[in-house]
Amino acid sequence: GAGVSQSPSNKVTEKGKDVELRCDPISGHTALYWYRQSLGQGLEFLIYFQGNSAPDKSGLPSDRFSAERTGGSVSTLTIQRTQQEDSAVYLCASSLMGLGHSNQPQHFGDGTRLSIL
Amino acid sequence: AQSVTQLGSHVSVSEGALVLLRCNYSSSVPPYLFWYVQYPNQGLQLLLKYTSAATLVKGINGFEAEFKKSETSFHLTKPSAHMSDAAEYFCAVSVETGNQFYFGTGTSLTVIP
Fold first, then answer.
1. DSSP state string for A4-34
2. Could A31 and B99 be called an inter-chain contact, meaning their C-beta atoms sit closer than 8 Å?
3. By Cβ atoms counted within 10 A, which residue in A19, A24, A54, B101 is the most buried?
């Protein structure tokens, strides 16, 4: 499809395990964002990738969280040694973003619902 | 730095009544403003955006918003609520020289039959 694709759509895992969440952005979108949305809350910015530039990791809540974007396309968000407070919906978005394109909206995937038992 | 404030985390309206969801922004430079809607178990969908053209912006599903610089507001309205409008609504801001969007905390809209 033409939209942002996230997988898995749901993930249930035990506390202490590592998880990987995948995001496949819209083709040609140079910017990619990860957000966390806890139950009934707004969007918490996690990390931002723009082209080949160094990612903006300022929103990552701890060193258990990391993300990479290979080849400027697919991104993986990894949470190590998961804790119960990591339970949330993790949303990925892509856009034609960057200097001169800040008026372009973000396009969101449907998210990965992560539950830590 | 930019920020967005959405007044009212929950709004209830009767079916057929006016919908008004409030958004105020803070920005030292001209902003770009967006409204997104999120239905249960889905990601966010763009409703409309303001990018320095017309101050009254029309979006999908009959929604519109007006950029008022003097009030630093970008309130979302719809003349007549429909049951299908029940969802979470997010306001967001970005700027020309920036690389991030800043989202409000969202407003949950309930439509009463």
1. -EEE-SEEEE-TT--EEEEEE--TT--EEEE
2. yes
3. B101
Q: Are A87 and A113 in contact (CB under 8 A)?
A: no
Q: What is the DSSP letter of B83?
A: G
Cβ-based contacts of B100 with chain A (< 8 Å) = 45, 48, 56
Q: Which residues, 6+ apart, have CB-to-CB distance to B39 below 8 Å?
A: B45, B87, B88
A54-88 confidence digits (pLDDT tens): 888 988 999 999 999 988 799 999 999 999 999 99
Are A111 and A99 in contact by the 8 Å Cβ rule? The answer is no
Q: What tokens were used for A58?
A: 């300022």
Q: Where are the beta strands (DSSP E) in chain A?
A: 5-7, 10-13, 19-24, 31-37, 44-50, 65-69, 75-79, 88-95, 107-108, 112-116
pLDDT single digits (tens) B11-55: 999 999 999 999 999 988 888 899 999 998 888 999 999 987 789
